[in-house]
Amino acid sequence: MSRLNELDAPGAEAPGASMNNQAMFEVLVLGVGNVMMGDEGLGVQVARNLLQNYVFPPEVEVIDGGTGGLSLLSYIRSARRVIVIDAIQAGAEPGSIFMFDSDQLEETGGVKTSVHDIGIIDVLKTAGLLDDRAPATIIGVQPGKMDEFGGGLSPEVGDKIGRVIQMVLDHLAEAGFFPRAKGVDAPLGSE
């Protein structure tokens, strides 16, 4: 797992390190996946794109969670709300986008909500067992190829990155947070 936050300083305490059951930030945007396995890296690509192109208010934390699995639990527990971006197996056409809330997880039935060994959904459920589960919104994209080591995103999935980013930005705006595009003085949507 790598953190790509330009506000990090040497010696800065990681979110969740001294949580005391208190949220460290309002919204966690968490991109997960394995960039070495084709479309499985979508969530990480979205997180990296967001961090490269936007400045976020201090109440919003964006993390490239990679394949961190249970090591992401402290980050999830330190947020009041979580937005997860991941590849999901839903038996749909590659590039199909799905969005659902964590309280709908039991309703997803046949949808395997992650392609990881220990998926982010398992981590969210574990947080719930600890009575700390923050409400979460999952934005998932049906992968096409995941068997090419180091192959990058397929065109069907890569073409959806912009739409997924806009969904994240819209979700943040609904919560009252307006990231600023780098090189732009006024926050987006604040006018």
Distance between the termini: 36 Å
Oligomer type: single chain
Judging by the overall fold, what is the CATH architecture? 3-Layer(aba) Sandwich
| CATH class categorisation | Alpha Beta
Report the radius of gyration as a whole number of Å.
Answer: 16 Å
Describe the structure.
- The structure is a single chain.
- By secondary structure, the chain is an alpha/beta fold.
- It has five helices and seven strands.
- The longest helix is centred in the last third of the chain and has 14 residues, at 161-174.
Q: Would you kindly provide a brief summary of this structure?
A:
It is built from five helices and seven strands. By secondary structure, it is an alpha/beta fold.
What is the topological layout?
Blueprint: E1 25-32, H1 42-53, E2 54-55, E3 60-66, H2 73-77, E4 79-87, E5 97-101, H3 120-129, E6 136-141, H4 155-158, H5 161-174, E7 180-181
Parallel strand pairs: 1-3, 1-4, 4-6
Antiparallel strand pairs: 2-7, 5-6
Helix pairs in contact: 1-5
Fill in the keyword field for this structure.
single chain; Rossmann fold; globular; 191 residues; five-stranded mixed beta sheet; two-stranded antiparallel sheet; alpha/beta
